[in-house]
Fold these 3 entries.
Entry 1:
Amino acid sequence: MDLIDEVVEEVQHEKLLNLWRRFSIFVYIFLGCVIIGTGIYAFWKDHEEKETKKASAFYAQGLKFEESGQLKEAQETFQGVIDLGVNGFKALSELSLGSMMGNLQKESVQGVQESRKFLEDLVSFPKTPKSLRRIGSMKLLLLDIESKDMSFLKERLESLLKEKKMASSFLVQEARASFEYQSGNLEKSYGLYEALLKDPKAPHGVRHRALRMMMFLKSKEASRAPQADEVT
């Protein structure tokens, strides 16, 4: 019996050795993956903490620039935070840039120039989020309308009308109608205002302004009619 037991044990031992030889490589691979994965995770966590601290410091610096009126420096700093891509601080920086756009001073010629420069830098920066770029473009359009500089307005409209999403904007359509009026194309201007008035999706304010302009253009046309009769 002892001899048989020894033989059985020897056979079992041999089988285990064979199994280990066949599958030990997979055990080593698994253990290696665990070790490497743990190392990568630790490295990623450390990197994330460093990036978060960096974003926090940048954001705080951006706020200081904004408070002191250094718009260009604030913009560049907030853009740097957005580039880092740390979610919380990225969103805060986008909100800060949006707030800066909303607080632009336009009381003086210098204020308008500074506002335009700030917005143009923001819009032209390739990494500016699309939502902020659209807002900046709209604010530039409003500045162009207020400045009554036809060359600026024409150039801005041509640029915006090339973008499908921007071209369908009610503000862009209203600006286009205003541009046609200022260019002397009264009939075309009237048609654009009429389209805005009839569009059920247009905001109430836009439709109201469109109606007022249509009435104004009609009265202007009526005042011209007697003069034309006198000439004939």
Entry 2:
Amino acid sequence: MSNEARSIDDRADDYVLGLLEGSELETFETALITDVSMQNAVSASRERFLELDMTAKPVPASQALWDGIATRLDKVVRGQEAPPVAANNNGLFWRRLALAASAASILLAIGLGWSLQNRPDPLVIAVLLDEKGQAQALVEDFGDRSAKVTLLTDFTVPKDKVMQVWTLPSQEMGPVSLGLLSTSTTALLDGPELPKPRLDQLYEITVEQSGGSPTGRPTGPILVKGFSKAAH
């Protein structure tokens, strides 16, 4: 492997782990838009670190976490502004265990009326957490190509970027996009035909180039992620 190729791979690893900053990060992301070799390197890096990410076993969420979610959902329902969350790619994100939704999510979902009217109940619900373990978004997957995403806070995303929602149906299939997300509080995404969502399935939201990931795989920094639990 040439020094140039190793350099691209090394920078791709640093980008995925959130180690690039300032002008170096800006230069890398600018080149990523058109440089196919760099896009492939980032995709390969994300796939490699995904295997490490999947070794983290979901653990039950604490009552304090659910109390916080209830408070934030109440603000969303009443239209109150939540504290903004900046788009970042903290390397610690890859080394923290992703907390998963517990059976309490079902009671919370029913009590707060998350499910859309005139729609079947979701098959799974995932609470998406940031690198600090704070709940920032909810995903309800209906198993019919549609998923409802509820943001529990306002995300600060650059004007030339967009949020993209992903899920991991299986290791063999790899990450699949469920769609692009605006800054609105709630969105119903119409994704591709996928296998029935399973328990402990990974969901995440990343920041991508305008129009979505250029590779069809996650390439940008992760905002939040979490594992699914049964909705009933």
Entry 3:
Amino acid sequence: MLALASILFLESGSSVESSIFEVAVPLIPKSAMLCEYLKLSSGKGNELRLNDPSGALSYWHGLRDGCVGLLESRLRWGGPLAVKQLCASNIPLLLVDLLANNQPEVDSTNDQVGLSPIGVVWTVLSICQCLSGRALTFRQILLRCNHIKLISDLISDMHLKLVKSWVGPGGGKDGVRDITNAVIDVLAFPFVAVQNVPGLPSTTASVNSGALLNLGSPGVRVGMEDKDMVKVIEEDLGKYIKNLLEVRISFLCFSSLRRQG
């Protein structure tokens, strides 16, 4: 799983006509299998959890990295139908649970579910893709202060220092950039959606150019194609902004973007 997820992640910036894409994507396990694996790993299944005591596949990789990496690829390339199917399977909340449980113990490199920094990035990117699936998912993830805080804490000074010091995949300066962009893609999703409604000026700036709104966000498609969901987002935007202010997200975003410079 991990090898295939890594190959597909390297292809994330290429077109769907890529020869590697054509060969690799059919090898991704079915959505049902990925869902079941995540349920087991998060303790939601009826069987014993599969992780070993350290949660590590190797010195540099977590036991869950491959699964969430392939899930992110299926969400990204599977189209709206794949996103809706996975949302119906309660995957978004399972992903949030993985992040919540992936906290290292004091003075220990072990964690509970086995996500390395690259696995955390893939998990956040998967959550971002799921936001476009249905209004309920948007409300479950972004209208709860505890979820916003959990995600925004990934760009706190303490976490970014840990990421920068990590010598494996997902670490270093590139890792800081990747997790920052992934988190901001999630947090900016509602704004991207409402600002990409046909007839309004298009948002073309990227995170790296100094703006929060990212043209590559799933919110772009929602804004252009899903009027009903945009209406829900607009109705809840005031509450969402209030939640952002409660967790001081503006300061966190500014601090993390400055750290990338």
